[in-house]
Design a protein that fits this description.
Length: about 90
């Protein structure tokens, strides 16, 4: 039975680094108390994981990286969040 819930997780905020979080729909990425956080709509007992990767503006993007989820502003910088595809 699907029991949806929204949870918040820390997101690594350095370009090129990945965050491993439970599988689900990314609703929002924002800075909260000085750290990037990601809000995910997921099943309450979700065990599968997804990888999110942060890419800086102007950086080369690996075509195998996966789908763009959102972008987030951090002062003068814009960071782009991608969900890694299963094949990467």
């Amino acid at each position: 039975m699907y029991a949806p819930v929204i949870y918040k997780y820390p997101l690594v905020d350095q370009a090129g680094n990945e965050s491993l979080i439970p599988e689900g729909k990314v609703l929002r990425v924002a800075k909260q108390d000085g750290a990037f956080m990601v809000w995910v709509l997921q099943e309450a007992d979700e065990c599968r994981k997804q990888k999110l990767r942060v890419v800086g503006t102007g950086r080369i993007i690996d075509p195998k990286l996966g789908e763009h989820v959102t972008s987030v502003e951090d002062g003068p910088y814009i960071w782009h969040i991608f969900k890694e595809s299963d094949s990467s």
